[in-house]
Write a structure and sequence with these properties.
The protein is an alpha/beta fold and about 525 residues long. Helices cover about 35% and strands about 20% of the residues. It binds zinc ion (ZN).
């Protein structure tokens, strides 16, 4: 019996590991590599095995870096099922279609650019001189419907006619729809058959709603083996979701190999209990100035946690009850999935909301913004309000339009609640905004470019930690030490290389046998 570590090995995206026995080939997650297109495209397009030989997929949770290549797998004739929790199944309906939509739009844009430069070169007949602005504008006009929308039919027509290499999306909406037919959702702590001699039981992972630790039990050559795949592990005491499981059935307690994440393998978070207090302070300050609050947030998890905490603050009359707008169609759909699965909420959510007949995510002041027109109208709203909008790192989406209307006004607040990757607008807002605050807002404000214009960052920038969906080093060790598991060996994955190595080292010091595999490495289990 052997395991090959294909993705999220010494990096954080593209989670995928393959367990092979004499009878079965079980894939754990099938995630998308994320980051710069140039570096990830090739990795995403090639599956390192024949999809037809995979028995089944065990999916830890719905995040795209864990589920995002399943449509590629089914497109390549994967014959099996995708086994996951019920929430994960329901959330994937929206996330995979959204991912396919992004793949299609990216391909459309790249094809538009290729055709544009081909036509520009034709215009200058290959000579070195640059194309005139007027000619370029003519070409752009020819390739667009109205001001913004790319004319895909026209572009396809030109690609067919000339020697231009077309970009094909990784998968289409149709491929994603097809993939969803293979999904099978199970409740936590029930056992699913996933192979000839293999079963899987899901336990709470505490990372996002529906996330699971997968306990995979295999019978091979007359012996039983248990592999525990943690997926992403969450924090203790987070709102809404249950803590990572600590008590496992007797038959699941002896682990031959644990495959464990290490995103924050060498880092520490702020305590969760300060979150409500912090949000209260930021909101009251902003409202006193007569301003609004823009919160860029991920659609899955972060948006719902914000709604939960806001609902609590409103119920306790800790802040004025100004309107809250959720302006992201994906976040609206995912909030619906949350609403449909109260059976997986934690006890606190039951006591605070459900037992009183309240839904944590729907209250009088919350509005889910639908159409683009509604979103545009909200841009012009003068009265104080809160906007929760995607994308979480301000790289695209409706949040950009809210920023465009509010970033220059010192009455307003931009509240950062998530991790901002390098080279994102969110990161620039956070770093330059906090630096400007620290300099007591003296001197000229930072200037930021987005949507083809430069804007002065005069709005207040605030940061609220503690929302992370990943456990830090101590929380992950707490999970290992307080659970009733007996673990022979730990493979440390899903972390930047320095985090994984430091975490494995720390685990060794704590008495565990741990190692960091290399990408594509295969190990035997005995
Ligand atoms: Zn995740």
């Amino acid at each position: 019996m052997q395991i090959t570590f294909y993705g999220a090995v010494r990096e954080v995206t593209g989670s995928m590991h393959l367990l092979e026995t004499g009878n079965d080939r079980i894939l754990m997650d099938c995630g998308l590599f994320q980051g710069h297109r140039k570096e990830t495209d090739e990795k995403n397009r090639t599956l390192p095995f024949d999809a037809q030989t995979i028995t089944n997929v065990v999916l830890s949770h719905a995040h795209i870096d864990h589920s995002g290549r399943i449509p590629l797998l089914t497109k390549n004739n994967f014959p099996g099922r995708v086994v996951c929790t019920r929430v994960t199944r329901d959330a994937c309906k929206y996330l995979l279609l959204d991912s396919a939509h992004i793949q299609e739009s990216d391909a459309d844009y790249l094809n538009y650019k290729a055709v544009r430069s081909f036509l520009s070169e034709m215009k200058t007949s290959g000579s070195k001189k640059n194309i005139s602005k007027r000619d370029l504008n003519d070409i752009k006009k020819q390739l667009k419907k109205g001001n913004h929308q790319i004319d895909t039919e026209k572009i396809e027509e030109i690609i067919r006619k000339y020697p231009i290499e077309a970009v094909v999306p990784l998968y289409s909406m149709e491929d994603a729809e097809h993939a969803l037919e293979s999904f099978e959702g199970y409740p936590y702590r029930s056992t699913a058959t996933i192979g000839k001699n293999a079963t899987c039981t899901f336990y709470e992972a505490g990372h996002i709603l529906g996330s699971a630790l997968s306990m995979i039990k295999v019978r091979n050559n007359g012996r039983k083996y248990t592999v525990c795949y943690t997926g992403d592990i969450g924090r203790f005491n987070k709102p809404i979701i249950k803590d990572p499981a600590l008590h496992f059935e007797a038959t699941d307690q002896d682990i031959d190999l644990m495959i464990m994440e290490s995103t924050y393998g060498n880092r520490f978070h702020e305590p969760i209990k300060d979150l409500k207090k912090g949000l209260k302070k930021i909101l009251n300050e902003a409202i006193e100035r007569g301003g609004s609050i823009i919160i860029p947030a991920f659609a899955y998890g972060r948006t719902q946690e914000l709604l939960y905490v806001l609902h609590e603050l409103y119920n306790d009359k800790e802040v004025p009850r100004i309107p809250v707008f959720v302006d992201s169609p994906l976040a609206t759909n995912i909030t619906r999935v949350f609403g449909e699965h109260p059976e997986v909420y934690d006890l606190e959510t039951h006591e605070t909301f459900l037992q009183k007949g309240h839904n944590p995510f729907y209250f009088d002041q919350v509005h889910f913004v639908g159409s683009v027109e509604e979103s545009m109208a909200l841009n012009r709203e003068e009265k104080p309000h809160i906007v929760i909008s995607a994308s979480g790192m301000c790289e695209a989406g409706r949040v950009l339009h809210h920023l465009r209307h509010k970033i220059h006004n010192p009455r307003h607040t931009i509240l950062i609640v998530g991790y901002m990757a390098q080279n994102t607008l969110g990161r620039r807002i956070l770093e330059q905004g906090l630096a400007y605050e620290q300099a007591s807002r003296k001197g000229p404000p930072p200037m930021l470019k987005f949507l083809n214009k430069i804007y002065p960052l005069k709005a207040r920038v605030r940061q609220l930690g503690g929302f992370s969906a990943h456990g830090d080093r101590d929380e992950m060790v707490r999970f290992l030490k307080t659970s009733n598991l007996r673990i022979k060996k730990i493979a440390v994955v899903h972390g930047e290389e320095d985090q994984s190595i430091a975490f494995a080292q720390h685990l060794q010091n704590e008495g565990f046998s741990a190692f960091v595999p290399n990408p594509g490495e295969t190990i035997g289990i005995d």
